[in-house]
User: Fold this.
Amino acid sequence: MKRLPRIVITMGDPAGIGPEVIVKALSDEQLNQSARFIIVGDHGLFIRACELASRTVKVPPLNYESVTSFDDPAFRPDAINIMDAAPVPRSLIWGKPSPEGGKAAAQAIEIATKMVLNGEADAMVTAPISKQALQMAGIPYAGHTEFLAALCGVTETRLMLVCDELKVVHATGHMSLRKAIDNLTTERIVRTVELSLPTMRLLGYEKPRIAIAALNPHAGEGGMFGDEDERIVCPAVEKLRNEGHEVFGPIPADSVFWKARQGEFDLVVALYHDQGHIPVKVLAFDRGVNVTVGLPIIRTSPDHGVAFDIAWQNKAQATSMRAAIELAVRMASRRILEQGGDSP
Assistant:
């Protein structure tokens, strides 16, 4: 009998909307029954988050006992379970970055990552953090991706955005457009596809059809608008096709996402940040999910930030967090099935 996935959720920055959207997402009865969940955070904080969310949604009962694992006798499948392992001072100011908030968020990430690496959980979902708060706390990472890579001992990761209509992986990330072009190489594009394949398999695509977006207008128009597509992208496509992958491109960016949405491609490789983010956010601003590819673990996250301006006001929508949890459950279920489905 296939066991239910075990999903660990980090609370995110405690002064942001993370706790609120977690509780609201887990108030979906069907989702709550699809897996076992533990939230790593501050127990008192989630008592408050449950009280806040209960004004608008029917919140599951809160387990007032802190749990240490999914095997803990105190764990209650019918309740919201908290691992009280990232303390937050009661003097914390809501809606503002702080060293205390950054430290607590980092502690939750570290604990949750170790749980998945050690096989104590099958996947992790991360609530939004504040890069500023991390820096204030002296955490030497720009954000989740860099922190997770260090914890997992890997040097290469990529950002993939997932929604029902599109799946887009980014060859370059948070850098200026000029720097992104300077960093774009044939090898980087090839590696982006290679890193994406395990994640695509967990999404149900054994042999995905992959399109590489062009960098320049009209894919360079034979060199009239730049030679990068011919010089950098075409060799990557050729190499990947020679390896047996169904890869196409470069395809002009003004049409490739439409073609993917129509079902012609399963994944699009965007060559810079906004090239991939804009189409996903236009189609699914409140439903997009961030997946980190290249990690040895499954990690998803809602595609939005801490939203300090509306934090702890019961204004946050949990659509993206719910989608992130659903995707983590789906991917973890697939991995469990591949491994035989037995209890660990």
In short: The chain has a mean pLDDT of 93. The radius of gyration is 21 Å. The chain has two domains: 6-154+295-338, 159-280.
